[in-house]
Specification:
Blueprint: H1 3-21, E1 37-39, H2 50-59, E2 64-67, H3 78-90, E3 94-101, H4 116-130, E4 135-138, H5 152-164, H6 166-215
Parallel strand pairs: 1-2, 2-3, 3-4
Helix pairs in contact: 4-6
Length: about 220
């Protein structure tokens, strides 16, 4: 498989997965508005972590922030990740995330998070917790082109790792959809309760008016 074909097919798969999740819909609810976001990689010189990046994006009144490496997270503990999500939600920000390079035969692969499959599994877990609809990964670096066999062995390795994570990703998507439905149900029930309370208050006020009018 040529690199161009690989990128084309990968892009098609990402686009297909993105459509039902409305990746291009702004948090404001206006589906015609394209959201603006911050790629943490462009701010890497600041050496900021996730909390600072989210706060900076909020100050700039952006719609999203991309944390394209696990290294941006101060901690991968669920309690900390939930705090990040709460912070982003409070500013009406969407968090997108990435895990890093997934080719162990690449020139610059880091085993800080374990092997490639373990790293991607961690990325999927983190994404599920913070509400990211994607886990961005990459093959490696430009140096991979000059290794023995060129880029093709790295492409093959990336495909293998992605396929190995397929079931886990599907399960995470189901969890995300279920949580989305639960939020929708809670919000719908909340609105129904408010309408019920408003209706009760209105009927009570009318009843008082009638009683006072009758007693006069």
């Amino acid at each position: 498989m040529r690199r161009r074909d690989f990128l084309y097919r990968t892009s098609a798969l990402v686009a297909a997965a993105a459509a039902p999740n409305r990746l291009l819909a702004a948090n404001s609810g206006d589906s015609t508005r394209i959201p603006l976001g911050l790629d943490a990689h462009s701010m890497r010189g600041m050496k900021w972590k996730a909390t600072q990046l989210i706060e900076f994006a909020a100050e700039q009144r952006l719609d999203a922030v991309l944390l394209n490496s696990l290294n941006y997270f101060e901690s991968l503990e669920e309690s900390h990740l939930l705090k990040l999500k709460q912070l982003a939600d409070g500013h009406n920000l969407r968090i997108y995330m990435g895990a890093g390079g997934i080719c162990e035969n690449g020139a610059k692969f880091s085993d800080k998070w374990g092997n490639a499959e373990s790293m991607l599994a961690t990325g999927i877990r983190v994404a599920t917790t913070i509400g990211s609809p994607v886990v961005n990964v990459r093959i490696g670096s430009i140096d991979d082109r000059f290794l023995k066999g060129g880029i093709q062995p790295r492409i093959d390795e990336a495909v293998r790792v992605l396929k190995a994570a397929g079931k886990r990703a599907e399960d995470a998507q189901k969890t995300r959809r279920r949580r989305g439905r639960e939020v929708w149900v809670r919000e719908s029930r909340g609105r129904s309760s408010l309408r019920g309370i408003a209706g009760t208050d209105q009927r009570s006020r009318h009843g008082c008016v009638r009683r006072h009018a009758g007693s006069g």
